TrEMBL record:
Family according to the record: Belongs to the YccS/YhfK family.
Major location (coarse): membrane
InterPro entries listed in its UniProt record: Memb_transporter_dom
Transmembrane domains' residue ranges: 36-61, 82-101, 107-126, 157-177, 399-431, 437-455, 467-485
Protein name, entry field: Uncharacterized membrane protein YccC
Compartments, record wording: Cell membrane
Keywords linked to the UniProt accession: Cell membrane, Membrane, Transmembrane, Transmembrane helix
Record's keyword annotation contains Transmembrane: yes
Alphabetized Pfam families for the sequence: FUSC_2 (PF13515)
GO cellular component, as recorded: plasma membrane
Annotated ranges, domain Integral membrane bound transporter: 357-479
Bilayer disposition of the protein: Multi-pass membrane protein
PANTHER family: MULTIDRUG RESISTANCE PROTEIN MDTO (PTHR30509:SF9), P-HYDROXYBENZOIC ACID EFFLUX PUMP SUBUNIT-RELATED (PTHR30509)
């Protein structure tokens, strides 16, 4: 059973509540020194230059810009990282400029922050880059409107952007030596995980492979999508990812035949992985007996992967993506911004909470109450995970960080020595983000305290002020942005489940036509949708028990859906290598049944039992479909 499903089962059995351990990323990552050192250098360099010039304050905004860009780095190709970090830095600079211009304008500042929160919410819906840019736009608008920094707004905004550019430059220094290092690493990771499937096809390993493959496609296709002209090497990397998917499907087919994969194929894939990692030619694949459709599919896929690494030319129809123009991308972004119930609800929630926090700041009820607005902006971010979990973790992390920051301010005298703990906390930020929101807040709180102390000389009292403002911000989010909204208590597992069913139906429409060049595209869409469903489910089970208790009833249906998707891909793989394909009537019946179940789930109805033709080619697909319908009907997920 996949780890995230076991986690749900543990919660049902009375384990520690998941909302105390909710993570920002799907799984904790090991300590990585590269990002930590880069962040420390990026943040402290402007401060060191400011100290050397006798103008410490002049280094604050570049340091903040560097920190903004550094925490926006999510890995991937150099191009993707540059766009994401650059967008965050530019949006932050624009937000600071606008906020600084309305600083001190009374209730107009409150209205301004409400309008910026609406813009931020809409931008956040268009994807990862929009999400990060929207967040930094709002955060820096709050800072610009709440803190008076010496110098003109335009000059300060420019210094912020320059600091962000410095962080981007540090992050992409390896591009000159190895411009495709990230893409190659993602493909190597896919084949290392693929090697594990030869010894075990348990659900945990399959989920790990699917996630790694999805990340590989995103990294390689993201790097290639706007590359000028043709790029044979990236085409080869995409084709290798495609072959890895075919090998996986063939292994599932072998399981359906009740057979183990031949040792020769496993050894070839291991050698292939090392060849890609070492930049060498792979060894000749060892011959294996191909006495069944599944074995023929496996041996053929492995042999073609070896040929790709050996230098075989890649045809354009092997690339599993659909090229789209800039106009199409813009229309899609515009649609995401303005359509959808969840988008409208999130925008209203954020505007309401930001208005309340800004009003508190304008009334001067608390000292430095702009920290309250910052807390609202950071916590009320639904695409970062559970809002409830982040509110609790933000409060706990800030409490711990405030204690640490107080101790540092008491021990370390004001002056250049304060740069040492600043560098330490900046280095720990990437690690905290990889683990969970609370740990990130634990490192972020003392870092912010030390930066503000450089500007204001506020001393240890700053920690008390920061903690109080953060708690008020978390309270605003829970009382105004969480509890009153039904959408907060309804994780969209059902709609995403239906999306996966429709994606699998779309794949089956094309799966048995060997001349259809879009088959791999549809299969990737199906597994992408399945990966998104796992993410939605994982976030949902980290909510309080009142919500997660209902969501975990989807567990049996999710397992059945994984089995149905695997059975569909494996059946198509076998028909490509000798098994008679199913009739068009039988395929249409399965597709119609999937769409009917998806429609019933969207409407909240109990699906009827489908009537499917009995054909040997679709036996496993039909069996998985019946099982899925039964689990959806019996468990009646909420």
């Amino acid at each position: 059973m996949p780890r995230l499903f076991r986690r749900a089962a543990d919660q049902l059995a009375g384990a520690a509540p998941g909302w105390l351990v909710e993570t920002v990323r799907p799984a904790p990552a090991p300590l990585r020194w590269g990002p930590m050192l880069r962040t420390a250098v990026a943040v402290t360099t402007p401060l060191i230059l400011g100290v050397a010039a006798g103008q410490v304050v002049a280094g604050l905004l570049p340091a903040m810009g560097a920190m903004t860009a550094s925490v926006s780095d999510r890995g991937g190709s150099y191009r993707a990282r540059t766009i994401l970090m650059g967008a965050a830095g530019l949006a932050g600079g624009l937000g600071y400029l606008a906020g600084a211009l309305v600083h001190g304008h009374g209730w107009w500042t409150v209205l301004f922050l409400v309008v910026v929160s609406v813009v931020s919410a809409l931008i956040s819906t268009v994807g990862a880059t929009g999400s990060m840019a929207g967040l930094q736009l709002l955060v820096m608008a709050v800072i610009g409107a709440g803190i008076e920094v010496p110098g003109s707004p335009g000059q300060n905004a420019l210094m912020f952007v320059l600091g962000a550019g410095w962080a981007v430059a540090l992050a992409v220094t390896g591009w000159l030596a190895r411009p495709r290092a990230a893409e190659e690493a993602s493909v190597i990771a896919v084949y290392r995980t693929l090697s594990l499937l030869f010894s075990s096809r348990d659900p945990d390993t399959l989920v790990a492979f699917d996630i790694t493959l999805k990340n590989g496609y995103e990294t390689v296709l993201g790097a290639r999508s706007r590359a000028a002209g043709t790029d044979p090497e990236r085409r080869r990397l995409v084709a290798l990812l495609n072959q890895a998917s075919l090998i996986r499907n063939a292994l599932i087919s072998l399981d359906h035949e009740g057979r183990e994969p031949p040792r020769e194929a496993a050894e070839t894939v291991e050698d292939l992985t090392e060849a890609i990692a070492g930049g060498r030619e792979p060894s000749e694949p060892r011959p294996c007996e191909c006495d069944s459709p599944a074995l023929r599919a496996l041996c053929s896929a492995v042999r073609e992967a070896v040929e790709l690494v050996s230098g075989r030319e890649v045809a354009s129809d092997q690339l599993p993506y659909e090229p789209v123009g800039h106009a199409h991308r813009l229309r899609a972004m515009w649609g995401k911004m303005w359509y959808g119930h969840l988008t409208r609800v999130y925008t209203a929630r954020l505007a309401l909470c930001m208005g309340a926090a800004a009003a508190i700041s304008e009334l001067d009820l608390f000292e430095r109450s702009y920290w309250t607005s910052l807390t609202v902006a950071l916590v009320l971010k639904p695409d970062f995970g559970s809002v409830f979990a982040r509110a609790v973790q933000r409060a706990l992390g800030t409490f711990a960080g405030a204690l640490i920051g107080t101790a540092v301010l008491l021990v370390v005298p004001y002056g250049p020595a304060i740069l040492i703990p600043i560098a330490v906390f900046a280095a720990l930020l990437p690690y905290g983000m990889q683990r969970n929101w609370g740990l990130m807040s634990t490192f972020q709180a003392p870092l912010v305290l030390l930066l503000v102390d450089l500007l204001t000389h506020g001393g240890p009292k700053l920690a008390e002020i920061r903690l109080l403002d953060t708690l008020i911000g978390c309270l605003i989010v829970l009382l105004l942005g969480y509890l009153p909204w039904s959408a907060s208590w309804e994780a969209p597992v059902g709609p995403q489940f239906a999306e996966v069913l429709s994606a699998v139906a779309g794949y089956l429409r094309h799966a048995f036509d060997p001349w259809d060049g879009t088959r791999s595209t549809h299969l990737r869409k199906a597994y992408d949708a399945l990966a998104d469903l796992r993410t939605v489910f994982q976030r949902a089970v980290t909510e309080p028990p009142a919500i997660s208790g209902r969501i975990t009833t989807w567990l049996p249906a999710l397992v059945s859906l994984e089995q149905l998707t695997d059975a569909s891909a494996a059946t198509a793989a076998r028909t490509d290598h000798g098994m008679p394909p199913p009739s068009e009537e039988a395929v249409h019946a399965v597709v119609a049944a999937l769409e009917d179940i998806a429609a019933d789930i969207r409407a909240g109805r109990t699906p009827d039992k489908p009537e499917l033709p009995e054909e040997e080619a679709l036996e496993r697909v039909n069996s998985a479909l019946y099982r899925l319908r039964d689990t959806v009907s019996e468990n009646r997920p909420g």
